[in-house]
Description:
- The protein is mostly helical.
- The protein is built from eleven helices and no strands.
- The longest helix is centred in the middle third of the chain and has 23 residues, at 66-88.
- It is elongated, with a radius of gyration of 21 Å.
- Mean pLDDT is 83; it is low at 1-20 and 217-221.
Amino acid sequence: MPHAVTPAPSAPARALAARGFHHGNLRQALLDAALAAADIEGLSLRQLAAGVGVTPAAAYRHFASREDLLLEVARIGFDRLHAFFAAAFDIESPPHDAAEAQVRLQALARAYLGFADAEPALWRLMFGAQAAEYRSTAAPRARRHGQDYLLAALAGLHRAGVAPAPPDERDALFAWSAIHGAAALRGGRVPGAMLPLDELACEVAWRVVRSMRLPAGPHRD
């Protein structure tokens, strides 16, 4: 029976292994390797350990399980996504006028789409169908998160007179579905979603605004 072939570590990994790991360095090396992977959800600790040139036992001293590792990777992902949202607009300051309110929603859509473009494997881990546990435990709790930014952007539309009524949960669901759906289609290279990033963000935001301007339908209270 042929022996299994262990992947050879990369040159940077060999250099890191040759120097020896100080306390904490291996943990970070494993996280860095996971974040650089094309398919984060498909990783194993054994695979990561081989990639950085250490034994599986060494990796398990830092992460109790594959799920433990992916949870930490997801936390890093939420940190990075928060930075994108924080750069989009100041959530503590309401929009001054209708134009700024709409620009804020466009900036939010651009931030989310830009994150999905820049970190596709990480985005899939954070928002994939099998990541409910990661989302429930890895989302930041002591600060603003994505839902807060979305609700603030939608509330700003009403406050600035763009939308006739305050946003409700269904408005938030539609807006989130539109932005997240555009990112998913873009990740799948669907032609209609492959517009330039700014153009797609403006298109999605405009359609969300238009939906909030429409009169309430029979399903609305």
